[in-house]
Design brief:
Number of domains: 1
Strand order of the largest sheet: 1-2-5
Radius of gyration: 29 Å
Structural class: alpha+beta
Distance between the termini: 95 Å
Helix content: 40-55%
Shape: elongated
Number of strands: 5
Order of helices and strands: HHHEEEEE
Amino acid sequence: MNPIVKNRIRNANRRGAALIFAVVMMFLLFGMLAFSIDTGFLAQSKAEAARTADSAALAGCWEIYKEMESDPHLDLLTRHSHVASKANEYALMNPINADGPTLHPGDVKVGYLATVRDPSISDNSNLPILGVRVKLHKSDSSNGSIPFFFGKIFGLESKELSVQSTAVMSRAISGFYSPGAGASN
């Protein structure tokens, strides 16, 4: 048999193979695209949640400082509601996915720390460092979980998210001063 005719018969048997391969590869490509979009959205949401928890903890710590200015012998634990209120106010001003989260009563802890690296907040007023810890939750029951766009195709509706942040300050803050008129930088 002529080699040209033989080649045509072989190619006729393989007709459409490239189309099937292209369809399978497009399906895989769109699957990876969907996964990367949902993963990126989840990463962005986690960064926004961390930023919100940081700002709430800092606002709570700043509230303690302002109250210490007016009363240096402040009993920190009796002022917990003011600190939690200020932390919640700042959490609402820092939205996660265009939705300001609400802090619940147990999400803000005010207390004392032995060192800056110590993760536990205590009620022991003899410790030298004041601290405010904010735990932020996004779940179906609290602030709504993070929705997936394409995860629904694979049976994933949403993902819960939880972050925490601690702001601390020393009790020995003595304030700041303005340098004199002729002071050099």
